[in-house]
Amino acid sequence: MRRLASGALTGILALGALTACAEEPESGTSEGGGKSGKVAFLMPDLASPRYEQFDAPLFKKRMAKLCSDCGVIYQNADSDASLQQQQANSAIAQGAKVIVLDPVDSAAAATIVQTAQSQGVKVIAYDRPIPKKPADFYVSFDNEAIGESIAQSLVDHLKETKAKGGVLLVNGSPTDAAAGLIKKGIHNAVDDSGYDLLAEYDTPDWSPEKAQQWVSGQIAQYRGKIAGVVAANDGTGGGAIAAFKAADGKVPPVTGNDAELAAIQRVIAGDQYNTISKPIRIVAKAAADAAYKLMQGEKPKAETELFDTPSQLFKPTVVTQKNIKKVVFGPDAVFKTEDVCTKKYAADCQRLGIK
């Protein structure tokens, strides 16, 4: 299935590149009076549905509002660092003036930054930092704070319920610098929590399947001793939950991050203890604003610096059953209630006052 999906994606990306060459504008002046041109928006994988469903559409929408004459070249590398390098080279060849890059491999992405900057193309690191070669700007939620928040939330819950046992850590991809920051934050909360760290795993490509396989092995080794699982995102959290359900159906508190639709439903049902609300519209808008400023020869406003890169980091919000109605279904809701509270989850939604 993955090979088929990759093949289909390659075809779509190739068609997108041809369309960009044929229809997107050359550098010039936008209707608003500023300089116009092409911006590349290069995302890392299909394992997280957010990129196709939210990041890309929201970024395009904001760029269109800022500059109706600007073109967006969107590509997804499907967890292939070499493909992402090719996509970046293609975007440069097509005349992109700015590349917004969420890297598959944070170390390998240094080459993309070097190549782009050597040709006068600005680079914005998006969501994941690029430690070895400073980009021109970095936009993200605070990943270390994300890790600490989800882990501390879990630890507090375990203490409140007087849970016995230790915890498993299901970290993100070892090639993702953001995963490293999340991992650091998790350890900030877990190491001195009083709960033993039974084992931890760096999940290749953030793969839910690999997370599930690893957790299955830990369940067999630590049967009856696992009080909770700190999973670095909703995909790995979902994999952990699937492993427990396949074992004996008893699922301990499991964390997540990204507030994906499936994760929100799991939180509502009580299968997943928490997730992180990171309104993607915030980072997508900030990235578009920064790209437009760089296109004008201006410097985006930075609030801090990370890896020698001017950065804008936003604060995350932990979501549990206690605040899910307010956070997820408030005025700026991304998901419609009817999409979340399907027949399977209707009773749980009603119990939590979600209508």
TrEMBL record:
It is found in: Cell envelope. The keyword rRNA-binding does not apply. The lineage of its organism: Bacteria, Bacillati, Actinomycetota, Actinomycetes, Kitasatosporales. It comes from the Bacteria. Coiled coil: none annotated. Residues 39-299 form the Periplasmic binding protein domain. CDD domains: PBP1_ABC_xylose_binding-like. This is Sugar ABC transporter substrate-binding protein. InterPro entries: Bact_Solute-Bind_Prot2, Peripla_BP_I, SBP_2_dom. Transmembrane segments: none annotated. Keywords: Signal. Residues 1-22 form the signal peptide.
